[in-house]
Task: structure prediction
Amino acid sequence: MRMHDNARPHTARAMLDALETLKFEVLCHPPYSPDLAPSDFHFFPHLKMDLKETHFTSDDEVKRAVTSWIRQRTPEFFTDGMRKLVLRCEKCIERQGDYVEK
Result:
């Protein structure tokens, strides 16, 4: 399963063909909604918590730290984020599109 926004690289024919070949189920992302974006309610809060008070001297240092942090996450970390996404989407539907608080 892959969820993405409608940015041009994500909707290019080559990308869509590759996803179909790999048998990925593509979930279209709703218009920006921080309570439904896994990066906003799952990924970034954890990243910010783990890297808070870290002082970087260059963009490359930030990139290395984030890359290292991502590689240290278990598959369960990402699975948990997707599971939470499903629950948030269901709650959003129940609320007829209204905001889903934390």
Observations:
- The longest strand covers residues 2-4.
- Residues 93 and 100 are 10 Å apart (CA to CA).
- The helical segments are 8-11, 13-21, 38-51, 59-72, 75-94.
- The domain at 32-102 is CATH 3.30.420.10 (Nucleotidyltransferase; domain 5).
